[in-house]
Amino acid sequence: MKTFLSLLIMIFGSVPVFSMDFVSVKRQLPALGLSDGQLAQPGSVPEVLSGEELVARLRAEALADPAAFIDEHSPQEVGAAFGLQPSRFKITDPKRIEAAAVKLTVDLTRQRLVVVSSGTNKEFKISSGLPPEHATPGSGSCYAPDFIEEMHYSSLYNKAPMPNSIFFNGNIAMHGTNAEAMLGRPASHGCIRLSKADAKTVYALVRANGKSKAVICVQGVTPAPKP
Q1: Which of 8, 65, 132, 136 ranks highest by number of CB atoms within 10 Å?
Q2: 198 exposed, middle or buried (CB, 10 Å; 0-12, 13-18, 19+)?
Q3: Residue 92 has pLDDT above 50, yes or no
Q4: Measured between alpha carbons, how far is 144 from 45 in angstroms, rounded to an integer?
Q5: Which CATH class is domain 91-219?
Q6: DSSP H or E run through 27
Q7: Is 150 helix (H, G, I), strand (E, B) or coil?
């Protein structure tokens, strides 16, 4: 594990946050060059593997089921598996945040999503992650969307449908939910839930303007669950 951590440090250096573009990841698959034998039983990754062996095993898992691999592994492991350079980062440039065509602010304290774009200034109820175990991370930071998907099915939670998903900060997603009665208070495993109608509106706005022109900022503190 120490070898692997050293490898990650060398790869990512001073990069504060790594995330991936889903389409770019899928395009990398044919170039990974693994044998069928490596794909037969990917299994879990033993800590005793050396850095090179660990990366090879991660690549095998990624090829076996790329969507599940992205859902279930850290951004660093995804980067190691696909040999990707960081393509999206935590945004720290105030000018870039100010110039965003679409700014989405997740207010954890008020459990609201503030949507600001040309001619649009709206607030939508959300459900963020339920603390303490699943509290949504990233408060005080801004991110570019990693990838967007009209219908994503979670490999972590029994293929749960996640309509109009916008992923950011690793595998956190903003998406529609069937549990609309819970909106306005923390209830998720870390994602930002919206009503289906609101999620569709936000998704369409980001898609129309382009991911590169959207910024997602997280602020506030998640309220404690009510007894």
Answers
A1: 136
A2: buried
A3: yes
A4: 30
A5: mainly beta
A6: helix 22-28
A7: strand
CA angle 175, 75, 93 (to 5 degrees): 80
Q: Quick check: 227 pLDDT over 70?
A: no
To the nearest whole percent, how much of the chain has pLDDT over 90? Answer: 41
The H or E element spanning position 106 is strand 102-107
Report domain extents, the chain.
2-82, 91-219
Residue 192 has pLDDT above 70, yes or no: yes
Residue 28's Cβ-count burial label (10 Å; 0-12, 13-18, 19+) is middle
| Phi, psi angles (nearest 5°) of residue 129 | -65, 145
In this structure, of 35-44, 127-136, 183-192, the range with the lowest mean pLDDT score is 35-44
Residue of 124, 144, 19 whose CA lies nearest to 82 = 19
Handedness of CA 63, 64, 65, 71 (dihedral sign): negative
Task: State yes or no: pLDDT of 38 exceeds 90.
Answer: no
